[in-house]
Amino acid sequence: MHNCQFRVYYEDTDAGGVVYYANYLKFAERARTEYLRDVGINQSELAEKDGILFVVRHVSLDLKKPARLDDMLSINTNVEKIAGASIIMRQEISCGQIDLAHLSVKIACVDTNMRPARLSDNVKSKLV
Amino acid sequence: MHNCQFRVYYEDTDAGGVVYYANYLKFAERARTEYLRDVGINQSELAEKDGILFVVRHVSLDLKKPARLDDMLSINTNVEKIAGASIIMRQEISCGQIDLAHLSVKIACVDTNMRPARLSDNVKSKLV
Amino acid sequence: MHNCQFRVYYEDTDAGGVVYYANYLKFAERARTEYLRDVGINQSELAEKDGILFVVRHVSLDLKKPARLDDMLSINTNVEKIAGASIIMRQEISCGQIDLAHLSVKIACVDTNMRPARLSDNVKSKLV
Amino acid sequence: MHNCQFRVYYEDTDAGGVVYYANYLKFAERARTEYLRDVGINQSELAEKDGILFVVRHVSLDLKKPARLDDMLSINTNVEKIAGASIIMRQEISCGQIDLAHLSVKIACVDTNMRPARLSDNVKSKLV
Q1: Catalytic residue among B12, B14, B62, B99
Q2: Which of A6, A105, B36, D11 fits B41 for a cystine, CB–CB 3.0-4.6 Å?
Q3: At B63, is the secondary structure helix, strand, or coil?
Q4: pTM of the predicted model as reported, rounded to 2 decimal places
């Protein structure tokens, strides 16, 4: 399991006094990017050398409690499933002991023409 | 069914050349707000007079094709289900004949202490 | 003078209950894009055919009064000055009779290597 | 001089392949918030106890070079001037040896009715 932390700033909040719902997807993507960086998958390199891109196909977002200004969010990221041309990641966002949001994100592997592409064994081995 | 349209500007796109995935949730919320305004539900008034707020509890987002800079997005919004203290809305985002994204959004009705609150008959009657 | 209008949604506000300061730059850019579209300057076409891009070099932003949720913002856009390879635009954002923000934006004309490029007579004639 | 660093993620970029111009104001505000936190000024506390808010009145933004995806931005923040009811901060954003953007931000101190309020000696002493 991979963990990283991000602070909530004014830009993330809305007039309801809490984090705007779409912004949980921003925090989640920062966490996935850091996860991939940490396991040695460089998305820019993958695109240039192998012509392989990761694109989000499906997001399921459960909002349990609202995050607020100045909160330090902790995000856990797990690879739940690896298929031939897609990955499902599970992410949990919390603040201290409080469970705030859960996400399930399906990411497809595509070539530069946006057609499904198989994940290479090299990439797969880093994700397991 | 309610429809409204929004243009894609630079702010909505990312370095992949397409609309950033979290921003579909922004377009969807603009559309839900316009829907509520059109059926005569004023969220600020509801909050002040009745102490009732709508909060998003769950989002399911399917991304089919990417939207791009300058696209005029068309968003259809339907109330799929009304329960005692929640509403499920279904939204479809397209550009011309191209189907881009589908969302299902569960919205809870809460009081100012964030406890579940029943939808009034007046509000319900406007949503049907 | 060119005018266009945009509604303030939750995404534009912050926990202070007003429009987040950076978002005035988003509204201003939407207005400049609509201005260019209306005078017949297609930025994508300019980039593809002539290899010419517009990039913002300087912004001066004066914030007079805060905009709030549901406000309908009115934005006036004027070309203040056209030089060989740059344009200065002046923009005013208001809501009803209330003056909210003023911007002065310097836009440079560059080629695909980001070197200054002269504005063509055709483009200049549309801006005057 | 205060320094902090922030990574550029997809959310910060636009279809031009670079950081969207309004987002430099987001990075700058994160840096000002961290600066205030580090010198012991808690904005939420200031608001609750003293009824004092900081609001941005003017921003001058110079864009020198574009930041790109994955760049680690370094932001220097200095208090340039302290007046009775306002502060001017100067901020410089760079990546490695490359100077990207300069900002000058005038922040006013106001009471809860948005009228100018004097900075307390306690707050002033922390800013010098």
Answers
A1: B14
A2: B36
A3: strand
A4: 0.96
